[in-house]
Amino acid sequence: MKRRGFLAAAGAAFVAGCNKIADSDAGGRLLSAAEKWHMSAHRLLTDRTALAPEYPRSAVSPDFRGNGSVDPTNGDYPRHLEEGFANWRLEVRGLVASPLSLTLDNLRKLPQRTQITRHDCVEGWSAIGEWTGPQLSLLLEAAGVLPEAKFIVFRCADNLNGQDYYESVDLVDAYHPQTIVAHLLNGKPLPVKNGAPLRMRIERQLGYKHAKYLTAIEAVASLDGVGGGQGGYWEDRAGYQWYAGI
Ligand SMILES: Nc1nc2c(c(=O)[nH]1)N[C@H]1C(S)=C(S)[C@@H](COP(=O)(O)O)O[C@H]1N2
Ligand SMILES: [Mo]
């Protein structure tokens, strides 16, 4: 990894992000009419680049519960856990000029963002946690997302009910300042139940968008060929809305 390029990217990321946001077609035929209504109403009523509320330390939940996969046993995950994730890699690939393969140490050495936010699960619970990690925009800028890219896909190590968990967002959420690749929860390495060693935090969307056990970030032009084509595990499986803005 070229550290200098990364650090220079830190400053440029936000400006470049804005240009990409302006170019992006966040909708597309993937969205249902109701979802389109929700997304455009959301656009009119709220600024999608606005920050989600952040909380004081005193508000942090004593235990941030785990949900969905909480202890992956498939594939290489158990071995990585045993190795303390020393050989874990995060790939940045797809429609990018320079694909990246990053170690946890690479990620820890980048500029970090820490945020105390509320996680809302559609199953009816919420929890407040303090998350730390580099902004996704920094990684995307370093890899050089190509103009054809319209979505960012998150690949996960866990297999839940026979399907690999995955998620995706448009470029507005990908470049949002609170969209981070988190490696710390409340100042400590992520517990396994919360997605060790890496998970997404996408603070303007509901819980199922926050991919845990993150192995790869892929820039794509369309979600058609990805998973079941609906943009995420729960979207494919149970018809959850792809755009889950809050
Ligand atoms: N890889 C992966 N990511 C996932 C899930 C999962 O099962 N696997 N569950 C999702 C759901 S529905 C929620 S509410 C949150 C739960 O995060 P937590 O386990 O840290 O509470 O993770 C989301 N991300
Ligand atoms: Mo959830």
What does this structure look like?
- A hairpin with a 3-residue loop joins strand 3 and strand 4.
- This protein has 2 domains: about 1-45; about 50-240, Alpha-Beta Complex (Sulfite Oxidase, Chain A, domain 2).
- It is globular.
- The protein is built from 7 helices and 11 strands.
- The chain starts with a helix and ends in an 8-residue tail after the last helix.
- With about 250 residues, the protein is α+β, with helices and mostly antiparallel strands.
- Helix 1 (about 5-25) crosses helix 5 (about 135-145).
- A 5-stranded mixed beta sheet has the order 2-1-11-5-6.
- The longest helix is centred in the N-terminal third of the chain and has 21 residues, at about 5-25.
- About 40% of the residues are buried.
- Residues about 5-30 have low confidence and may be disordered.
- The structure holds the ligand Nc1nc2c(c(=O)[nH]1)N[C@H]1C(S)=C(S)[C@@H](COP(=O)(O)O)O[C@H]1N2 and molybdenum atom.
- Ligand MTE binds near residues 65 and 195.
Radius of gyration: 17 Å
CATH class of the largest domain: Alpha Beta
Low-confidence stretches: 7-28
Distance between the first and last residues' Cα: 35 Å
Topology:
Blueprint: H1 3-23, H2 33-45, H3 77-82, E1 90-94, E2 100-102, H4 104-109, E3 113-121, E4 125-133, H5 136-143, E5 151-160, E6 163-170, H6 171-174, E7 179-182, E8 184-185, E9 188-189, E10 199-202, E11 214-220, H7 233-238
Parallel strand pairs: 1-11
Antiparallel strand pairs: 1-2, 3-4, 4-8, 5-6, 5-11, 7-10, 8-9
Helix pairs in contact: 1-5
The ligand Nc1nc2c(c(=O)[nH]1)N[C@H]1C(S)=C(S)[C@@H](COP(=O)(O)O)O[C@H]1N2 binds at residues 64-69, 121, 156, 158, 160, 165, 193-195, 207-208, 210-213.
